[in-house]
Amino acid sequence: MKKTTVYLASKNGILNAGGLERVNLYIYTLLSAYYPVEIVRKREKPFKHGDWLLQSLYISLKLFFKKNKFVIGTSWHSFLYPCNLTFHHGTTAGILYNKCEPVNLYKKRIAAMEKISAILAKKNIAVSENTKDELIKFYHIPESKITVLNNFVDDSVFVPKITQNHIPVHVIFAGRLETRKGLDKLIELSKYIESYSGFELYIATVTGTNNILFSNNKHTHVYTGIKFGDMPEFYQNGDILYFPTFYEGFSMATLEALSCGLPVIGSKYAVMPELQKYDFVQVTDSSDMKQLTENIQTLVNKNFLRKEEIHKIIKRDFGKEKYKEKLLSLIH
Question: Using CA atoms, how far apart are residues 95 and 112, in angstroms rounded to an integer?
Fold first, then answer.
């Protein structure tokens, strides 16, 4: 009898880029040791009209013709196929509800496609308890059809570098410079530390969008187009991750920084409830820059000798081996 093939539906394939594609890459790598795994992605040539919809229809249609299959979907990427498992890295409905991005017809349609994919899926995988709650609240998915599987960090790559504390403190941010990621809060901090010595802000971002907003601030350093392979060193050279994001499914940047031994301070979406039990993270609304910098200094002072300890805790709770165990049990 022919061995079951796992088909991973991912519109943009697998790569070390955005968090979603990176998780798909991790899933592909882990499962390849046990099953034949194939990626089902969008066609190279875009459609002239309605590409966002037609590409998802194209992926869904391809899946119907596969045999001896176990299909893992990525939310709306294959929304018309009843996947065995469908991963949800947050919800568009949640983003719209939190008003952290403009409401438009495109996003409403994506939310509708997410809902269809969740209804059709045999089992929905939510990357956080918050995502699970949103699937129930916004898409009316029965709780029995949802399993929470938190994202994991590659603990063999993101490791601590034991160094002395930096003076001034190196505050780092990794992500796109856009409103949803907390751009306004970053600008506010950047301006504040111009006149309040003791802090340097280091930003790693994919594109050059909005870099100019920091160009006149001598204590802020923006690195554009930084490669994924350079990210461990970027985290290692920091003292703390500041992430004022307004919405995340389950932040990869937070896990990667923690795995490198850094404390994290940020919004409730940067530090999800699953992480809030640790004393090396802190939730803040960042409304008072003086209070924020004092909290940053306190967290750094308290944790700069705990890098190895923090790494071991994150490896234990959100490491590769534990994730592989849970993922394989879902497939079996």
Answer: 13
